[in-house]
Amino acid sequence: MPAAVLGKTILLIVGGGIAAFKALELVRELRRAGARVLPVLTENGARFVTPLSLAALAGETVRTSLWDLEDEASMGHIQLSRAADLIVVCPATADLMARAAAGQAGDLASTLLLATDTPVLMVPAMNVRMWLHPATQRNIERLRGDGVRIMPPDDGEMACGEHGPGRLPQVPAIMAAIADQFGDRPLAGRHALVTAGPTHEPIDPVRFIGNRSSGKQGFTIAAALAAAGARVTLVAGPVALPTPAGVGRVDVETARQMQAACAAALPADIAVMVAAVADWRAEAADTKLKKDGSGPPPLILIENPDILAGIGHHQRRPALVVGFAAETGDAVAHATAKRVRKGADWIVANDVSGGVFGSDHTHVQLITAAGAEDWGATPKQAVAERLARRIAAHFSETP
Ligand code: CTP
Prior knowledge:
The protein is an alpha/beta fold.
């Protein structure tokens, strides 16, 4: 792991939280691993650690102000943010994340975050209620959508005596996340669109038609593509899953909303359509259907748009379009026909004769123009990683 950060320059922004003292240990570990650390301390950060201790450990000048003429003369803040291979914000406070999410530039730290296209890793630490507050969660989604990588905090006893998520992760875990940023990122610079989960089609304001898709497979694929360096837009139907790190998520409910969100996400280099889209929607009633004694109401079904086929035949078709197919019986024959009909390059055919929905395992065949490859019975996580590697290999062969 140390090899990954050897010779790298890391701009470390230390925010104002009780966990700021751990940033000192992080500086020591980074330097031990051979990285150069350029420290920036926010005004509130300086209430928790002194510029002197940070400077002594980093062996560098500590920058604290946007208006320091001496620093501006030697290295302006724009130049400072670009001199780094990675910007790490540790601890990232709720306030600093809110300002970064809003694109504010009122102090040195927020200006650096706005003035750069260097990758950013934020390591949040805060009180559990602040972490769970919808405003913080909204800011996190926004930052992820902007391509910022956010490390989930640890769960446990907090300095304030409360219990729950919000603690700064251990320094070795932060070091691993930093090293991961410098790992093999073959899909860096590519945009991937992924759909996941079911769709819910309303019958009336309280009822819907749905299906058993858990969204697990789509979410693990989104995570694997992000880990391979892609910018990922995950269009998710109603599921109870956390957003994977580094993934921008758009929540939708119906097939038509999913279709609109996919169209809005274009252009993309890669589309992986994993969602179990409802094939039909009901002609929904505006008011709740009542038992009025005349028997069950008729359900008039209308065919939904085929999102995969729409993307597969789109003017701005992604270079690689991958569909999924849930099949029973002759899976290869059905999926092969589906690949052509929907304009996909590949189809990942799942044999759903067993209990795949909601499970962590699946039996997969990859159908390409060259034929079928049996991937056997595999955990969904392994399917995701293998597919991401396969997609990366495709782009390295056809740049
Ligand atoms: N799909 C889609 N939009 C739809 C239906 C399906 O984007 N309205 C996508 C799925 O995300 C998946 C692929 O198409 O990638 C295959 O879906 P599947 O339900 O297996 O195929 P169908 O077209 O519904 O065919 P059939 O029901 O005949 O098996």
